[in-house]
Design a protein that fits this description.
Number of strands: 6
CATH topology: 60s Ribosomal Protein L30, Chain: A
Shape: globular
CATH superfamily: RutC-like
CATH architecture: 2-Layer Sandwich
Structural class: alpha+beta
Number of helices: 2
Distance between the termini: 22 Å
CATH class: Alpha Beta
Largest sheet: 6 strands, mixed
Helix content: 10-25%
Strand content: 25-35%
Length: 119
């Protein structure tokens, strides 16, 4: 049986989709829409973008399952954590990993890989 009909793709291009949802789980990656701003502003921007993506599939930050955080500069971690702690609902923290990584655009201060429960 081919189960491809239950896969929903949003913003699909030749190379990637902005979001893929399958069997109640959403998968997506976020980078800052405006990498010209400073780290704190990029982190706030990224988490607002996550909220927007989650809304596309009837989800929210309360339904996050896992977030992988890629930071090129480990000195940004305290600022990221400050923004993150204010954003994640109490009692709803997902599984999380933070990795130091060189990103494809040197202006990006973070890249997020997100998995969440969805409708």
């Amino acid at each position: 049986m081919n189960d491809d009909s239950t896969i929903r793709r949003f913003g699909t291009t030749t190379r990637w989709s902005d979001l893929v949802a399958h069997r109640g789980t959403a998968y997506f990656v976020e980078v800052p829409d405006d990498p010209s701003v400073g780290p704190r502003e990029q982190f706030v921007q990224l988490l607002a973008q996550v909220d927007e993506r989650l809304a596309l599939v009837g989800s929210s930050r309360h339904r996050l399952l896992q977030v992988l955080i890629y930071l090129p500069d480990p000195n940004d971690l305290p600022v990221f954590n400050d923004v993150w702690d204010a954003w994640v609902p109490s009692g709803c923290a997902p599984v999380r990993a933070c990795v130091r990584a060189e990103l494809m655009d040197s202006a990006y201060r973070a890249e997020l890989v997100v998995t969440a429960a969805c409708d």
